[in-house]
Amino acid sequence: MLISVIVFAVLLNSIPAEAGSTRQNRSQRKVVIGFKESAGRQTPENRRSLIRQHGGRTRRAYRNLAAVAAELTDSQIASLRANPNVAYVEQDGMLYALDAELDASWGVKRIGAGEVHALENRGKGVKVALIDTGIDYTHIDLDDNYVDGYDFVNDDSDPMDDSGHGTHCAGIIAAEDNDIGVVGVAPEASLYAVKALDSTGTGYLSDVAAGIDWAIENGMDIISLSMGTNEDYQTMRDACKRAETAGIIVIAAAGNDYRRRRNREWDTVDYPARYNSVIAVGAIDQTDIKTYFSSTGAAMELAAPGIYVGSTDLGQSYSYRSGTSMACPHVAGVAALILSGPGGDVRTVLQETAEDLGTAGWDLWYGYGLVDAFAAAGSAPEPPILTRIEITPGSPTLFLGETQQFTARGKDQYDDPIATGDITWVSSDLTVGTIGASGLFQSDGLGITTIQATGERGVFGTAEVLVITIPMLDKIDVSPSSATLFVGDTQEFTVSGIDQYDEAIETGAITWASSNTDVGTIEGSGLFTALGLGKTTITAIGDEGIEGTATVFVVADAILTTIEVSPANVTLYINEQQRFAATGTDQYSDPIATGDLTWESNNPGVGTIDEDGLFTAVGVGETTIRATGDGSVSGTARVVVEAEPAAPDEFTFTGYIRPNQELWHTLSVSKPAVMYLNLSWYGWGDLRLRVYDPDGKMVAESDSNTWRIQEEEITVNVDQGDWQIAVKSKARRRSLSYFIEGMLTYITTE
């Protein structure tokens, strides 16, 4: 994404229809409708039909996204939202790419791509979909690598670039190594132009989503997105996730919002780069420092060259451009080199081989660091050979006399499928079972045997077969295994049978018995009745006399022993209220009713409490709240009441200052506080901000030494007295108007 724009996209729900306006209600607006995955099988034609039924016009129906783009009136939108199969309706928002220019071409060399080319790895055959303003596929540095594409802006098959942005990004990825102009990171990668942005570098959400859908449908390996927006569209989120699920590496520009945010460390990474399914790429300059515009944040993953990058442009020309839009295709090119070279999990390889910049390890500015083409793709892949044989099933259990068909599959050193050669099957214990040349195993005796399949070069795999007898009841579990009851209570017991292999099995008819009938008796259905205090063992007897037991304790009735008041500790200001609650616990640590409660405060001068537990703070200090229930059992809570701190005071100063002039403003402070100052001005020039204490000593200064920012800030602790705020002009020729906003936040003292 290129720098110097702030994107404001408006959600559909935030644009209400004008009251009483039939014209507004009848005018159609562009939206994207998402459908629930649980809505059953939905084809593009099904979705088009639904839009027609509501009176709308479908603009796009996607094959790989559960969504359509359409034009609908407000009333039609409201009707669609009520459809149970519709997940969301959102505005067909805009995504942007904008230009800025700085200094020298150097990116491909800096990331070590040339060293990879020397190893005959140039990304050949890797399919890269550039979703952008199109590609000038007639350019002498791109024509051999261009394969195909589509124009979703004009809905035709000619994705010719009419902006230059997409052509520039395409050259960074795959400009040809032909001794002309520039060389791309992967100069033999296959380029696919997906035009979703128009000549101004602006495009609809629906067109970008259609581009991602096209990339999935056409089997792309990589998607490069040098664009962004501040809005989190569900359609875009779903499209990127579908692409990742399809095995496509999705890479996007992190955004150029750092300068717009006035260099504050906010999470400014744009969408779609911010999604977990996308690799977010920031920009660095020639000194390996983050550019002044590159966004920062928790989603940052990699950094790449992004300032004054030379590449292809319209009309057989070349140009220099800057922005995270230029950084993104560097990473796309390296991903292509990995896929055509050593392979592996591309995202993991990119992270693990990145050159660490800034703070050690991952950080908000550079993510895992600068993408390193040579470290990621500099090793030539070894030819695949059989290294492993997998047998399925891996560990079957058979009953005596059963058969099992085994199959063998080969894997190479890259964990990809490969032929095994002729397989030889053997069983390690012929008394347990034998196996034929086709892999069919016959069980002949009880026990365990190992099946081995040996292929070419002696590579083999194994499986373990367990041959067992028919299962029989081995034990009975009684549930619950232990129960505590009061006299007169009942408890239903149930049983489950377990065989000798620890699997479930029928128990047969169950006979129940109680070891102490004075404590309780049990019926044939398993219903126990508690008759007296004490302990008894319940026994369940099933087939072949197999038994299971449970223990029953019959205890005295529960009584209230403790009361807990909540909250246990609270701090309030005067006149504030707090509702307290009390819960009771019996001698068995179980909940029990407290009975009628009496509430009291031991220091009424601090606060009082009514019969319902509502406390009112009346004075500064500390008091104990007591709740008393049945049997004089009580519980307490602690309340601290403080004086409410003074509200902060705000103030402003304005002025008109001549070149090299210094103006002073006096601020009287009545008590200790934290003072915040913000100085802003208009026009070309630089201002310095200083704060002096009542003794005339300078205690704080803010001076960025640049006219580009037009803002200074200071935060300082102040005491009682007259403080001086000084504004100094460093402009040589122009007078400037300035504005000071300030706030005093008073410090509470005991």
What are the main properties of this structure?
single chain; 750 residues; mainly beta; seven-stranded parallel beta sheet; four-stranded antiparallel beta sheet; 53 strands; flat
Question: What's this model, at a glance?
Answer:
The chain is 13% helix and 39% strand. With 750 residues, it is mainly beta.
Describe the protein.
- Strands 7-8-6-10-11-12-13 form a 7-stranded parallel sheet, sandwiched between helices.
- It is mostly beta strands and 750 residues long.
- The longest helix is centred in the middle third of the chain and has 17 residues.
- The relative contact order is 0.07.
- 13% of the residues lie in helices and 39% in strands.
- It is flat and about 105 Å long.
